[in-house]
Amino acid sequence: MATYATPLKLGPLLLKNRVIMASLTRDRNLVPGPLQLHFSILAGIYNDEQVGGWKKVVDAVHASNGLIFLQLWHIGRVAHPLLQHGRANVAPSALTAQGGKFRQLEGKPGYVQPEAIEDPEKYIVLYIRAAERAKQAGFDGVELHSANGYLAHQFIDNTSNHRTDQWGGSVENRCRFPLRVIDEISRVYGNDRVGIKLSPGGGYNDMGMNEKDTVETYSYLIKELNARKIAYIQLARYWALGDPVKRGTPIDVFQWRNLIDSKHTALFANTDYHPEEGAETLKSGQADGIVYGTL
């Protein structure tokens, strides 16, 4: 019977407890200032200077006997050209997400139509390079962000992926992109230092299939991920507050618990957990760790 204080073996690593800090885009000024007003740049890991900066973060975490994974993230169609030097936002298909609000831009415009990616393999290479740089910086592992309406999730979801080639259409084809990325970054780090974040219910960034397609798609994807014996699968629950256009599907993420072999792959549960509910989820064995990003 696990509690928050029960250590957890994660591949070659040993977590001291089962409270997981979420990957978050945030800054920590106590009093909002110019950074909060004009913030539009997020930390990357695509050049040597960034590797050096991240190494300082990693060293500080390790000095406190902590472990840290780097989340690999491409936002795809929910970017805006004016925030990336005029370069078009991209997606599996040229389908515009509904909603959005770029508060850094005059008039706070919404999402714009993306360009369809011609060759997804070129974007897989970007994930490989990022994983290689993460290893240079000393991260203990990497997590593929395949949730919340970002690029890998856009390939999975049949509402954002209307491709007719090997990257779209069938469940197997729509899951090809995230599985290819997992395979490639596992070659960089080893499969037991790789994780993935999924949000099957959608909601964020105008994502979400019907329940039938969701169950079929994620049953296949999670079986394939389990077969690869990666370190963990993080499942984010549906969150109504993150679904302003009401596209998501409230769905029980624990229906896939029996597809994940805890002998080699941990299941982390995320989204809107209170301490007591998290404790019960661990006690029942539904999850191996609880991910928190808010107080």
From TrEMBL:
Residues 42-292 form the NADH:flavin oxidoreductase/NADH oxidase N-terminal domain. It comes from the Eukaryota. Pfam families: Oxidored_FMN. GO terms for molecular function: FMN binding; oxidoreductase activity. This is NADH:flavin oxidoreductase/NADH oxidase N-terminal domain-containing protein. It comes from Didymodactylos carnosus.
